[in-house]
Amino acid sequence: MKFIEQLLLQNRAWVEQKGIEDPEFFNRLSEVQTPKFLWIGCSDSRVPANDITGTNPGEIFVHRNIANMVVHTDMSMLSVLDYAVNVLEVRHVIVCGHYGCGGIRAAMGHKQFGLIDNWIRHIKDVYRIHEDELKLIPEGRERENRFTEINVVEQVFDLVETSIIQNAWAKRQLPFVHGWVYDIHNGLIKCLKVTMNDNAQLPEVYRFNPPSQVDEVQTRPGH
Ligand code: CO
Predict the structure, then answer these.
(1) pTM of the entire structure?
(2) Distances, alpha carbon 44 to alpha carbons 47, 67, 90, 97, 102, in Å
(3) CA 40 to CA 1: how far, in whole Å?
(4) How many Å apart are CA 18 and CA 3, to the nearest integer?
(5) How far is the CA of 46 from the centre of ligand 1 (A)?
(6) Residue 10: how many CB atoms within 10 A of its CB?
(7) Measured in angstroms, how far is the CA atom of residue 184 from the centroid of ligand 1?
(8) Angle CA(169)–CA(62)–CA(188) in degrees, nearest 5?
């Protein structure tokens, strides 16, 4: 029990400290949240979005899962994305992976971990697509790090292939979508320079027409 009680004690200390630094902090945040960023990151306890970017509560809207994946049928991710882009109108969406990711490591191996293997399958799919390039890199940390980067780039593309992002671009040329990797060894973030705010780089099959060009709604057959 003492570990959990420790958290509550530390919460009291944090509230006190915040009050000293900025007496209006809680008053201001209790009214409304206006974050400029959506963060899609790994669940790993070593990669907390606010801490590593030096931001406060209220500044980053966050979705985290194992290995920062953008899975098209993930209702939780899609709901967070739609709300962030269309209601909060964030200006930036960041997919942030990290070196030393257990999900990435599991995807490159053959060991079973249970239910999670079915989630890891999505990461294995990314590996298969880039297998030729990855096999040229010596096995071990170097190959793992490169795969971590490749996976982030893939997730950025998965993200911008959604109608949510493409419709937002058609409407307001925002958000910018970024791919980053966090280094757990030194705390630094590396930008992978795949930032996009239009669909020019998308393979043609993924490009949507702007919503205004959507065909007239068909009447239901028999009506
Ligand atoms: Co991870």
Answers:
(1) 0.92
(2) 6, 8, 24, 10, 8
(3) 32
(4) 23
(5) 9
(6) 10
(7) 10
(8) 95
104-158 pLDDT, tens digit each: 999 999 999 999 999 999 999 999 999 999 999 999 999 999 999 999 999 999 9
CA of 139 to the centre of ligand 1 (A): 19
Three-state secondary structure of 110-143: CCCCCCHHHHHHHHHHHHHHCHHHHHCCCCCHHH
Reply yes or no on whether 178 is catalytic: no
Distance from C-alpha of 126 to C-alpha of 152, rounded to nearest angstrom: 10
- 115: tokens are 């239910």
Q: Please name each of the domains of the chain with its CATH number.
A: 1-30 (no CATH), 32-197 (3.40.1050.10)
Q: Closest Cα partner for 41 from 167, 178, 140, 147?
A: 178
